[in-house]
Amino acid sequence: MLFVLLLAAAVWGLAAAFGIRREIRWLVIGLLYVAILAMLVVLPEGAALRGWLGWSVGAWLVFGGAGLAVWSYAQMLGRLRRRAGSAAEARSEATAPTAGGVGASPRTAALSDAEVERYSRHLILREIGGQGQRRLRNAHVLVVGAGGIGSPALLYLAGAGVGRITLVDDDSVDLSNLQRQVIHRTEDIGRSKVSSAARGIHALNPGVTVVPVERRLDAELAAELIPGVDLVLDGSDGFATRALVNNASVAARVPLLSASVGQWEGQISLFDPARGAPCLACLFPVEPAAGLAPTCAEGGVAGPLPGVLGTMMALETLKELTGAGTGLRGRLLLYDGLYGETRMITVLRRPGCPVCGDI
Ligand SMILES: [Zn+2]
């Protein structure tokens, strides 16, 4: 066995020294392998050369099969890499972005080997590919609330490689949060939600930049944070915060993905009056009467329900940032967890809406 490996190494080294191409060298190694198999079949039992060859035919076949598997894997990674950085993508990168201005200043640096492997399941999707993955890497989103909806959304955004996430929440992790706010852990109780969530994001994907903002979102902070991001994700609890996020998003002409849950039901839509869709105030112009829309603390919520809506939010974010599929502009998706039913409602801009009427 040692004799064969030394022979192969000598052939490889000698060929390299003479500048023979890598493909030819692999061909010679392959021929050597076939010759070994042939000798093992032809040579009589007890022949001296059999001892030099070491293994049996079966062992050499297993060795060859393992080598072939490694080679195939390397070829697949190479193909993904070429696809990620192909000239065709560079050309299409120059076309107008579908939304949010993500592609307006394309940073087309090729994906690293680690990125190609981490995002390989995205890269083979026709709708995302290398171009989409770079758009995700270049994107900046604002997430309001690291609670029940924000937790799964943040984890999936991190997993998907959304490059920069600004996260606003002034709350701390409480024992009663852990039934559904899956980015936090028992040992995080008492810690600020933004730092706990940042820990969770970095544990999953150190390549994501998190900007934690441990403050209560008010109109001033919203007006400071929202311009310049590609998309706002609002999973906050409470009408007042939702309304001010909507106001600032409309003013900055930034699309707003908004989801909410209560008890067994949830809803999600993409508000974007700058591109023809309604804003939140078109649908909900005034705060619901007390008791009609109880918060999770007041009315309860099934733990996985915000997981469903938060995960939908992350999926819609990927679509919005890459231009894949059809998003939720002008459509409100309702999910009834108790009966396992979904409904899609077309929603229109409301003439004279005090928030988006001037857009
Ligand atoms: Zn409106």
UniProtKB/TrEMBL annotation:
Domain THIF-type NAD/FAD binding fold: 119-355
GO cellular component, one term: cytosol
GO molecular function: ATP binding; molybdopterin-synthase adenylyltransferase activity; sulfotransferase activity; thiosulfate-cyanide sulfurtransferase activity; ubiquitin-like modifier activating enzyme activity
Pfam (any one): ThiF
Keywords: ATP-binding, Nucleotide-binding, Transferase
Catalytic reaction(s) noted: [molybdopterin-synthase sulfur-carrier protein]-C-terminal Gly-Gly + ATP + H(+) = [molybdopterin-synthase sulfur-carrier protein]-C-terminal Gly-Gly-AMP + diphosphate
EC class of the enzyme, as a word: transferase
Top-level taxon: Bacteria
Name of this protein: Molybdopterin-synthase adenylyltransferase
Species in which this protein is naturally found: Haematobacter massiliensis
Record lineage: Bacteria, Pseudomonadati, Pseudomonadota, Alphaproteobacteria, Rhodobacterales
